[in-house]
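Researcher: Let's run the pair from yesterday's discussion. Sequence first, then tokens, for each.
Model: Starting with the first of the pair.
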Amino acid sequence: MAKEYDAVILGGGTGGYVAAIRASQLGLKTAIVEKDKLGGTCLHKGCIPSKALLRSAEVYKTIQNGAEFGIRVSGAELDFARIQARKTAIVGQLYRGVRQLMKKGKIDVYEGTGRILGPSIFSPLPGTVSVEMNKGEENEMLIPKNLIIATGSRPRTLPGLEVDGKYVLASDQALSLTELPASILIVGGGAIGVEWASMLSDFGVDVAICEFADRLVPGEDRDMSKEIARLLKKKGVDIQTGAKIKPETLQKQAGSVTVQAEVKGETKAFMAEKILVSVGRIANTENIGLENTDIQIENGVIQVNANYQTKESHIYAIGDVIGGLQLAHAASREGIIAVEHIAGNKPDPLDPGLVPKCIYTSPEMASVGLSEDAAKEKGYNVKVGRFSFKAIGKALVHGESDGFVKIVADKETNDLLGVHIIGPHATDMISEAGLARVLDATPWEMALNIHPHPTLSEAIGEAALAVDGLAIHS
């Protein structure tokens, strides 16, 4: 029997389930279709499990460096099976929480594979969703007044360097390792690549990175890239930028794999137990029935307007499937905007310049707004303030004084253009900068905010003062 809904969400990742909750809050009869588990990539194969592993690596490194704090530790052993068990427990707890939120919101959850149908006896418009249920039950037919596509993305692969789960891994397989390799080559030095490099090197793995661009994390401020490269090298990571992998040279032997790369005109060979391919993600647009609609796809992603409507105005799309920032928190906001538009409200459009970006290396990186180079490319005459964590008492107390806060402002108007942090707890501190951007604050106004002492946040206030050469402690 066909079932009618005000809103159906195809995909139960972070963006999808947040959209469903907001729809329920607004009084819309709502259903969500998920072929695997609610929470999607972020909860099960991305954000949460990787950060659980990163935290274990951080604790292991801290214990090893205990003598610096006057605490001598001997016999500390890394129990990777227990580390993985802790990760699994955290994911399980959050998964149960998401399921409970669906019950609380009276949101119908269909566990199966959804496919969009064209005009039919069920509806004169495309958008009816046929759900092939996971447990072998009869297909369900959902007729929504509005449909939100939130099918997410998957790791991108390189031709000739296909994932086999044994020698060549993507992040999905790496998260499920039962034991740590002695060595690994990471192909790709973006956010995911440097997170894995930081984590695995802290676990004692011999790590090399090959990045095609001329620097690591090329989407971040150039000074941030330079600093994370310096700190990863300090950990012993072999970093090769301007490196083009030659997949045709891949060779697999018992217990190891070799591959060559062209690095700045020179051919270099790399040998490791495993290769981790980390070259971005690709939108999940296949096999969901888009061909039965007029929805447009360009460069592999669904095209939408500011309210996330596709060319079919009653069908919306959010999250990784539309490209853009490909961040869980961005997808959540996109889902809220789409649902509020469906409900007849007039939500403010999402400004990508207000969305913080976080990278969970050790130390962490976070940013919001324009980098110095990007600001100059847009024609701004910039002024920059920078302050090191080495002059921050709390950072020294914690034994984490690497990194800095960098603030980019418009010299003519004093407008805040961007804030970039690399250092301890950067991902937690970036929200202050994000709020400053939302409120259109100037660096001087940021400096007027009294930062308690001793805290890491003092670095933000000092960097804000440094924009005009007024930093107190430098």
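Model: Moving on to the second of the pair.
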Amino acid sequence: MTPTHLPGRVAIPSLPEQTRTPPSQNALESFNATPADEVRQTLLACLHSARWADRIADHRPYPDAESLLAASDEAAYDLTPADLAQALAWETLPALPEGAYSAAHTALSAAYAAYEAKFGHAFIICLYGLSHTEALDHVLAGIRSRLTNDPEEERVVAAEELRRLARGRLIHAVRGARNGATSHNGATLGNKQDTASH
């Protein structure tokens, strides 16, 4: 069964469990040595903010994974409203897990439409660490809860979700520098970005 894509845009990552584990020193050394233009493309696949990507790229080399992730967090906390808008506009809807029941599709479609009508941007939520069976309930609960926020409250929540997504994607991308794995949209560190998408 092919996973179904819903209308609208929402970031529901489905990266492997290894995103919880920091990249190895060899992967970090490869990241540090990658040409700036290539590393910026990979970073933009993690969080589509030119300011964030430039800041992470320009502060290389990183002595250890913790320093890289701390820099990622710090740069994400410093996103301006324009940076946040740029990053949110890039987020897209990936496939729901296989076997998702049709009622979930209907409920999520309605919730996404209500969210975008109210806030004018994609609903994003970080699901790292959740199983596929937990993800749908978490998304539905999250979007319903966040629909009660005012725009400023939601901007703060969305920025935190972007920071968490960027961190997980960065771990995955740096690991990919050594093993050819791809980021969430198919970009590989040190290789040309391919056209894979959700």
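Researcher: Give me one sentence on the second I can quote.
Model: The domain at 10-179 is CATH 1.10.3330.10 (UraD-like).
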